[in-house]
């Protein structure tokens, strides 16, 4: 198996999202026509723009006792900001909205994974003359699922939050993909994978974006430090003999991307293909003034992803 470590992956194909500036532990972003300021502990530098240029429709203010990866705080939003608005990425249409968790209903840096998965899916279809079966765990508002389905996959979309699955339905309808082969499930990820193994089901690709901690619909407790490795091992068993890929993204834990890398390396040691790991990042937009453009990047998450020789 080929291995590439410490890659810096960005998503350059956005039209409706930009990182306008960053610095002083904050980032200044555009989501469609609206601009927002959010905390960013990675941005330990000076902004390129002046403070007067940071004019936003919403500012997320952390709680007084909040740590880097803690919860708390809330949004200060302008009166003219709608509760939600439409954005697009390639053929997708979806809703953006401020949430209590700082983000706006999706993670723009993950578009790099969507494009990578789409290329692998198309290669699989060309080789095997059938759509690959993809399982998307901790799938949230559904953009990875919709993008994979648009590329030709049959997708099982799973999240423990009924609200998240409802958002995924909203986004599906905006895309006009009601007839697409996507199965939406509200369930605990580990419990679902256990049942699929007992049913002797299999998938050609698996996408995981686990939270640091969480609760399943029946009160099941998830803690990434304790539960991720057993789940990855079960997901490996769930992959078909024609396995295409596994994608793991990790946010909000104090760990190197090497942790994700070696977690997958253990699983695919004798499988062939290619394993890549590093950081998902967003790059600042070019300046529209005469100031020096530093082309800075802001790291957002660690990742590791394996693909078979078909897509490598």
Structural notes for this entry:
The chain is an alpha/beta fold and 312 residues long. It has helices at 111-128, 143-151, 162-175, 189-198, 224-238, 257-267; strands at 2-9, 17-23, 26-31, 34-39, 58-61, 74-77, 85-89, 92-96, 133-137, 154-159, 182-186, 205-208, 213-215, 221-223, 245-250, 274-283, 297-307. It has one domain (2-307): 3-Layer(aba) Sandwich (Rossmann fold), CATH 3.40.50. It contains six helices and 17 strands. α1 packs parallel to α2 and α4 packs parallel to α5. The model has no long low-confidence stretch (mean pLDDT 93).
Strand sequence of the main sheet, in spatial order? Answer: 1-16-17-15-12-9-10-11
Q: Which radius of gyration do the C-alpha atoms yield?
A: 19 Å
Strand content: 25-35%
How many helices? The count is 6
The H/E string reads: EEEEEEEEHEHEHEHEEEHEHEE
What integer is the average pLDDT?
Answer: 93
Query: In total, how many beta strands?
Result: 17
Second-tier CATH architecture: 3-Layer(aba) Sandwich
Work out the helicity level: 10-25%
**Could you name the CATH topology?**
Rossmann fold
CATH superfamily: Vaccinia Virus protein VP39
Structural class: alpha/beta
- What's the level 1 CATH class? Alpha Beta
* Approximate shape: globular
Distance between the termini: 10 Å
Please give the domain count. 1
How is the biggest beta sheet arranged? 8 strands, mixed
Task: Summarize the topology.
Blueprint: E1 2-9, E2 17-23, E3 26-31, E4 34-39, E5 58-61, E6 74-77, E7 85-89, E8 92-96, H1 111-128, E9 133-137, H2 143-151, E10 154-159, H3 162-175, E11 182-186, H4 189-198, E12 205-208, E13 213-215, E14 221-223, H5 224-238, E15 245-250, H6 257-267, E16 274-283, E17 297-307
Parallel strand pairs: 1-16, 4-5, 9-10, 9-12, 10-11, 12-15
Antiparallel strand pairs: 2-3, 3-4, 5-6, 7-8, 13-14, 15-17, 16-17
């Amino acid at each position: 198996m080929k291995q590439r470590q410490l890659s810096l992956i960005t998503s350059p194909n956005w039209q409706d999202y930009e990182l306008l500036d960053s610095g002083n532990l904050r980032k200044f972003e555009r989501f469609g026509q609206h601009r927002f300021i959010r905390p960013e502990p990675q941005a330990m530098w000076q902004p390129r723009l002046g403070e007067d240029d940071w004019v936003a429709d919403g500012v997320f203010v952390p709680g007084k006792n909040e740590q880097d990866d803690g919860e708390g705080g809330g949004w200060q939003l302008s009166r003219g900001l709608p509760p939600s608005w439409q954005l697009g990425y390639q053929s997708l249409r979806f809703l953006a909205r401020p949430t209590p968790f700082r983000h706006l209903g999706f993670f723009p840096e993950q578009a790099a994974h969507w494009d990578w998965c789409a290329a692998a899916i198309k290669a699989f279809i060309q080789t095997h003359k059938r759509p690959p079966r993809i399982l998307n765990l901790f799938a949230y508002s559904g953009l990875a699922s919709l993008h994979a389905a648009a590329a030709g996959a049959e997708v099982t979309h799973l999240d423990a939050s009924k609200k998240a699955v409802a958002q995924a339905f909203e986004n599906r309808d905006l895309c006009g993909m009601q007839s697409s082969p996507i199965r939406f499930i509200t369930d605990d990820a580990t419990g679902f994978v256990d049942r699929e193994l007992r049913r002797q089901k299999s998938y050609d690709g698996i996408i995981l974006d686990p939270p640091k901690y969480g609760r399943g619909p029946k009160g099941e407790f998830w803690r990434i430090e304790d539960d991720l490795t057993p789940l990855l091992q079960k997901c490996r068993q769930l992959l078909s003999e024609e396995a295409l890929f596994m994608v793991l993204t990790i946010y909000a834990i104090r760990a190197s991307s090497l942790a994700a890398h070696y977690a997958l390396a253990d699983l695919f040691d004798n499988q062939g293909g290619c394993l890549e790991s590093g950081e998902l990042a967003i790059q600042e937009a070019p300046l529209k003034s005469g100031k020096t453009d530093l082309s800075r990047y802001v790291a957002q998450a660690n990742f590791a992803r394996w693909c078979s020789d078909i897509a490598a």
